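Thanks for the sequence, V.! I ran Glutamyl-tRNA amidotransferase right away. Repeating your input here for the record:
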Amino acid sequence: MREELTAALKDAMKAKDSLRLSTIRLIQSAIKDQDIAQRTAGKEPLSDGEILQLMAKLIKQREESAKIYEQNARPELAEKERQEIAAIASFMPRQLSDDETKAAIEKAIAETGASGIKDMGKVIAALRAAYAGQMDFGKASGMVKAMLG
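Predicted structure:
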């Protein structure tokens, strides 16, 4: 993942694509911040799955910012946020559809042997391990809860 970001950074520099370049630098900066936090806690640097989770978080932040800009009649700033979302999303794997998410949850429930709400954490952990960056875990946890409840 890190090599892919570095290659994309070089391509953006060559293409003089300032928006993509600044967005990639933003992603790399966030990764570096998390790596430092991990190192001070005595942990390993971020894995690819954790990098994908970090990028999903960055996308969510930009979606919230775009919504606020729209509400405050600043469409040009909202558009910039949406362009950053598109740049970040280009590094993310394809998002699972609702049907695919439901099937993945059913599979995770079967694999973990979950039988009730108390096992929800095990199911979500299995989903995070298998589908990092591919599913909205906020929505997925509601679906897991409904299936186990």
